[in-house]
Amino acid sequence: MKRRNPRARQQPDYYAKRARQEHFPARSVYKLQEIQKKFALIRKGQRVLDLGCAPGSWAKYAAGLIGDSGRLIGIDQKPVKEKLPAQVEIFCEDVRMLAEAPERCEALVGGLVDVVLSDMAPSTTGKKDVDQARSYYLSRAALTIAQRVLTPDGAFVCKIFQGEDVETFISDVKAAFNSCRTFKPQSTRKESKETYVIGLGKK
Ligand SMILES: C[S@@+](CC[C@H](N)C(=O)[O-])C[C@H]1O[C@@H](n2cnc3c(N)ncnc32)[C@H](O)[C@@H]1O
Question: Which of 46, 57, 186, 187 has the largest count of CB atoms under 10 Å?
């Protein structure tokens, strides 16, 4: 049987090289760019919450869209080393804990936001069921927080690994938003099982 090279995923592809040239810390920026091109969710002056923001590519790109008059709150359990503009504030926290601590979460976010982004991904084990279950748990935490802090009509973008729980998650997003779409950006690595669930117009 042909074995996969375990380092293949780490080799810089077109998007990784482009991210380096354009001074973004990760290739993931092109996924958000594609989402933005299709759904035009982030606008000047808005407040954005970015869950799982390290190493900072989405935060850097979204900060450019919201401009000086906007505010982006980024949360990750890992520190962000990237230098980000003044409208960005980063907190080092576990999002699963914040989902279970409404007061702490609201204090940290400091008011309602227009867009909640979650690009959170668990550390993968290589066991499909375990990785999917962990991704589902993170997505649920992101949805809980989005329901708490999004302004009416706000938008939600959430990464989830494809698996049996995705349909349940989509139903819950449909219940909380006027419309729900799924989107797999072209810049997603071919072997990746991730997709983005997008909720438009928080009820
Ligand atoms: C794919 S990376 C996000 C990339 C980011 N959007 C960017 O463009 O730079 C996924 C991130 O989710 C974070 N993450 C995973 N579980 C988390 C949790 N429970 N709380 C906070 N962050 C978490 C990881 O630390 C990791 O930095």
Answer: 57
Q: Which of 77, 118, 123 to mutate to test the pocket of ligand 1 (most atoms within 8 A of CB)?
A: 77
In order of start, what are the domains of the chain with their CATH numbers? 34-202 (3.40.50.150)
Atom of ligand 1 nearest to the CA of 141: 19
pLDDT digits (tens, 9 = 90+) for 33-53: 999 999 999 999 999 999 999
Average pLDDT of the chain is: 95
Q: Would you say 49 and 156 are in contact if contact means Cβ atoms under 8 Å apart?
A: no
In this prediction, residues 155-181 reach a mean pLDDT of 97
What tens digit of pLDDT does each residue of 74-95 get?
Answer: 999 999 999 999 999 999 999 9
Residue 201 DSSP one-character state: E
